[in-house]
Amino acid sequence: MTSLVHLSEVHKAYDKTTVLKGINLSIKKGDLVVLLGPSGSGKTTLLNLIAGIDKANSGQIQILGAEISEMNDLELTDYRKDTVGYIFQFYNLLPNLTVLENAALGLELKGESLDYAKVILEKVGLEDKAQRFPAQLSGGEQQRVAIARAMAKSPALIVADEPTGNLDKNNSIAVRELFKSIANDSTIIIATHDSDYLDIADKAYELNEGILETIK
Ligand code: ADP
Ligand code: MG
Are 144 and 152 in contact (CB under 8 A)? Predict the structure, then answer.
């Protein structure tokens, strides 16, 4: 089996707090992986290691066969910019850019890229709101823009950290449905404490006491 993401014996501690105690994980291209665990269990830490935002103390993290710990600063920058699309709990849209401009952010703002961003906005159902600003959208719509922004750069991997943690029930359902609909084209890791995500998961794991347990 060729895996897109492969972690082997990954350890991570902050000062005296050991958060990850030997994580082994393989993710196949095209899988939607759900990472459950209570608050403080290390979900964000694990996503950040995979996304090249934080560094492990030991162990291997390979994406597309490249070992993250061996990348220099320039390679890491390119990795974060090109390979990973990151979706945050609080959307992190730029308030002074339109929906379309936000969606196109991952691309360099060229004419043809804007056209592609329009196609992606259609996929997330927001083509009619392309000229609005984030403050003129609901939370769920803002998160759909953030998902469009992540998708627009066609990253090898999309990671989402508590993507519906700030949304009400109906908006959460809409965002979850959106993840389900894009899952075939993308490899996605979603960290959440919401077990409703198990329904859309190809694989699911629970993080507890620094150890990963397979639950689906
Ligand atoms: P989760 O996302 O599952 O809520 P986190 O990965 O955010 O968990 O945090 C796991 C543990 O690591 C927590 O005890 C948290 O306080 C600690 N932690 C996270 N980031 C840092 C940091 N930058 N410095 C020190 N401790 C941290
Ligand atoms: Mg977290």
Answer: no
